[in-house]
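Comment thread on ticket #2218

A.B. wrote:
> Attaching the input chain for the structure job we discussed in standup.
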Amino acid sequence: MRPRAGFSGIRVGVALAAGLVALLASAPSWAEARGARAGTQAAVPQPHQVQSRSGPLKQARTSLVAFQTSPFPYRGNVPGTGKPFLNIEQDGRRGHSTPYGRLYWEDETYSDNRVLLHIPKGFDVRRPSLMIVFFHGHGATLERDVLRRQRVADQISKSGANAVLIAPQFAVDAADSSAGRFWEPGAFGRFMGEAAEALAKLHGDPKSVRSFASSPVIFVAYSGGYLAAASCAINGGLKKRLRGVVLLDALYGELGKFTSWIENDRSAFFVSAYLGSTREKNSELAEALSARDIDYATELDRPLHQGDVAFLAGGDASHRSFVTQAWVDNPIEDLLRRLPGYKR
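C.D. wrote:
> Ran it. Output below, let me know if you need it in another format.
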């Protein structure tokens, strides 16, 4: 299929070999491309009904919770290599030497099993809800970066969406994208089961676990978080619960996995925003989707719908600020506002 600029125009043919800039330069929008299908599509994910006596939360609740099924600690192998992840041992300490020659010790970098949980003020477990899983990038900690600098919880709160945040800690403050235990098939599904129980406890209504255990899930991956997101999308065991994937200047690789996920679940949405460092990979993915007759847009000008795919230029934003300043300010907030079926 051919690209469209936004969600309300015609398609034009563009040669993908010239790269994403040339490919997107004259791309129109989606209304004619969708045609008769547009009126029948539901906003994604599909709303679901919940039975509970709990009312809306009067105050936001945020906590760092230790999980048993977390990305780290991890004592397994690196996928595809047969080699142990912890491949260095010195004076009783274990460490991981990255492909780029960096050495990180397990006790400093790969031992934090905490997860950032956030339930916004006004969250109503009786209404259809979403679970937003955030995969942070390199050099990050949950408190300093995800919570304060990138304001992920704050963006969810301000969006007005009936959504909660789940943000696991990966390598602590390190230039490492390793997924750890999330490399293991089904491990992410177990993690989400534990998250449902932890969120119910944080919420204060034990019966709310049923809602959290069945709510649709959206992945938001920033920068190096792409590796874990790709692994969880393919091997995490969520199946149809995963209703959307958002990459924030994060498409550095794993194109085969993202292509497979998009192709095999045309009822979920995919949005990838890019700067210069990921432009080429976005171009490659756009070309792969075109070869599979899958439409995509280059602007967001309406609510998100089932099967939507979009590639968005980040403009003058910087990579470091991309979680708060991308194609728009506060992009996570913007995307959640495009899911009208999930208002608080």
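A.B. wrote:
> Thanks. Noting for the ticket: The chain has a mean pLDDT of 89.
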